[in-house]
Amino acid sequence: MSSGRLTPFSYCVLALVGREGAGPHDLTRMMRAQGGLYWTAAESQWYAEPKRLERLGLLRSRKQPGRTTERTHYELTDEGLAALRDWLARPSSLPRVQHEAVVRLLAADLGGEEDVRASLAALRDEIDAARPLLEAAVERAATLPHRERYLRLVHRLGSLLLDAHAQWLDEVERELDPS
Fold first, then answer.
1. Alpha carbon distance 40, 50 (integer Å)
2. Does 131 share its domain with 164?
3. Positive or negative, the Cα torsion across 153, 159, 160, 165?
4. pTM exceeds 0.85 for this model
């Protein structure tokens, strides 16, 4: 994206850079650690978007030593902080959802309910795999005192989302049970 328009992803990057700054490697690590529960994007986007935001004057970068090569570390500029603060004051909307399981269920009449039921069962494994990631994220929140309260609230939503998905799967499995 080469335009000067800011997207929800732009604000996500600005928020994650935050007051302490972050490099693209930090952004990808943070997103991997939450297992895609809150935001998903290709790893390349976590590298490209900070560069774009720097060209727009919202981030500035400096090189820092890394394990093997120098790493780029981004920090918010005054303009970036102002853009983020302006966005924070705007009304929030329902999240954009791209939910493959919902589409599979929607199309069950075009295939077979048994196949869809088996396909959706894999989602339960992902829910189970996400729970320890979420627990680790809750523990890490204590290491970020300036964000701990907010992270606790975010991770509470994550827990509720996992619970809601598990309950929905229970209902779908019951409804599609051939017996």
1. 16
2. yes
3. positive
4. no
